């Protein structure tokens, strides 16, 4: 059916065909905004971009493609979500990561300045904190990234803030904690590099899921993280861009955690995964993974104060929706008695 709302403003979303970008696009549309996607489809999927949303196939490394998108569509603002995000890979290929993540951002910012686009939102990460020794982690906790990936996100925040100050841009950097789940099965994460999909993969292959480290100084000895539903991550973007749209350009410069403020251990995740999937998800104890912090939990106070945003979904909904997405792609995975169907 035709939308009954007045079309809102237009926002260019780089990486809008990706896992997180696809969810952001969907939320923006539901919020009555207009969206244009720029994505090179290197890891994104065309099918994540809804009909009616222009998909410009191009890389943020191609300055001409970014210029063309801004000239053609004249957006109110830009959400720069396109990036490389595999932490381990970034250690092996730092030059590629710096180029993709920083040159990409630099192109985007130069083009915004040239075309008078003065509102920019940037996807950052809890990876900027490294091994924080405070709980919860506030935005003023010192940053000490442990990987080239985390470095590109921290340097990206600096570049964003400096360009914002010098050129009168309003900016928001959102530091995502551990993103999981899916709003619909088709939008699920296709990667296998995070806890939830790695456990699904082990279970459905008949293996026991590995628990990396059981002697951490945490209540049950396993690592504690702040898992956040991707639909909540997306609604934080909508709240942030509304703030950018309401403030005069150049007036805003925010760095905000996106988390729930609740720590969940690996053991607890396995329990919920077991109950949701119907598989025996008893973990196999394994050595600590290098570079893992015992506990990384967001303080979500600042984003609530600044944007009035807080997370809506819990662990159960993240895992059930991730499982639905997994089963949609691996039809043999579903078991008698498994939830999320
Ligand atoms: C979560 C916990 C593991 C797999 C990374 C990046 C971060 C962000 C999200 C991009 C850890 C444990 C995992 C398994 C396990 N990415 N684990 N068995 O490392 O917290 O964060 O992804 O922005 O920047 O660093 O996420 O999902 O890899 O691990 O025990 O098979 O699960 O040790 O404690 P992580 P993760």
From TrEMBL:
Cofactors (names): NAD(+)
Catalytic activity field: UDP-alpha-D-glucose = UDP-alpha-D-galactose
Sorted UniProt keywords: Carbohydrate metabolism, Isomerase, NAD
Limits of the NAD-dependent epimerase/dehydratase domain: 11-259
Enzyme Commission number(s) of this protein: 5.1.3.2
Enzyme class: isomerase
Listed SUPFAM superfamilies: NAD(P)-binding Rossmann-fold domains
Family indicated by similarity: Belongs to the NAD(P)-dependent epimerase/dehydratase family.
Protein name from the UniProt record: UDP-glucose 4-epimerase
């Amino acid at each position: 059916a035709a939308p009954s709302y007045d079309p809102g403003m237009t926002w260019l979303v780089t990486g809008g065909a990706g896992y997180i970008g696809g969810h952001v696009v969907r939320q923006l549309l539901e919020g009555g905004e207009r969206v244009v996607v720029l994505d090179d489809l290197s890891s994104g999927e065309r099918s994540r971009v809804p009909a009616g949303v222009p998909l410009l196939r191009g890389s943020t490394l191609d300055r001409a493609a970014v210029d063309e998108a801004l000239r053609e569509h004249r957006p109110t603002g830009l959400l720069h979500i396109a990036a490389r995000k595999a932490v381990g890979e970034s250690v092996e290929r730092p030059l590629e990561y710096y180029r993709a993540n920083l040159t990409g951002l630099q192109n985007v910012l130069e083009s915004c300045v040239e075309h008078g686009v003065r509102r920019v939102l940037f996807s950052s990460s809890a990876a900027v904190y490294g091994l924080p020794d405070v709980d919860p982690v506030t935005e003023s906790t010192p940053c000490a990234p442990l990987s080239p990936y985390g470095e590109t996100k921290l340097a990206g925040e600096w570049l964003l803030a400096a360009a914002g100050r010098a050129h009168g841009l309003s900016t928001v950097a959102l530091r995502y904690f551990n993103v999981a789940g899916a709003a619909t099965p088709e939008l699920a994460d296709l990667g296998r590099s995070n806890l939830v999909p790695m456990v699904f993969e082990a279970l459905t292959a008949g293996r026991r899921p590995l628990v990396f480290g059981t002697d951490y100084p945490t209540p049950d000895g396993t690592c504690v993280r702040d898992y956040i539903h991707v639909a909540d991550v997306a609604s934080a973007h909508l709240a942030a861009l509304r703030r950018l749209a309401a403030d005069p350009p150049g007036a805003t410069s925010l760095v905000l955690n996106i988390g729930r403020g609740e720590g969940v251990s690996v053991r607890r995740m396995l329990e919920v995964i077991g109950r949701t999937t119907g598989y025996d998800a008893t973990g196999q104890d394994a050595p600590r993974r290098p570079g893992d912090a015992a506990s990384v939990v967001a303080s979500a106070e600042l984003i609530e104060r600044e944007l009035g945003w807080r997370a809506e979904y819990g662990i159960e909904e993240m895992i059930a929706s991730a499982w639905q997405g997994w089963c949609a792609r691996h039809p043999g995975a579903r078991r008698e008695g498994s939830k999320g169907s």
